[in-house]
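Researcher: Please translate sequence to structure tokens.
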Amino acid sequence: MQEELENKCIAVSFKATKLTSRVFAKALAATLRQMKKAHNKPRIGQQSIKRLNRTVGGATDTVEVGERIESFEKYARKNRVSYHVEKNTGTHPPRWTVYFKAEQAGGLTAAFEKYTRDILSVKSEKPSVRETMRKFRELVKHAVIDRTRHKERGGQER
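Model: Translation complete:
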């Protein structure tokens, strides 16, 4: 209950030499204007399909993706791409449909190109964990282990 009330409250602070009802009304009116402007401003990144369709400019495109799309957020923000992800559980494995809207037509393609280039380069640079373990196993098998003991306390060695 307390958390719900905190989410519904706003805080307004302003400086005034004399607090009158007119000054207070003007401050609240200015705050409401700012809130309305922020609410209508088109957002970038992941959002609901309703908000995506409400934004002005750019065409909405769809792409079906079989893999994870979470790491795409960074590239979408850089290229000012708005998108919405829906999961289709009717197929096995599940597939995602991604709805896009970009301010420029090239923003969408640029974001996808950078994303795929970076993902492919990371996959090609990372060595296989199994291959690394196989190399270490071979090193341990062929390692020469010196099992002789040495006295370090100043006595004679045998």
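Researcher: Any highlights?
Model: The two ends are 80 Å apart (CA to CA).
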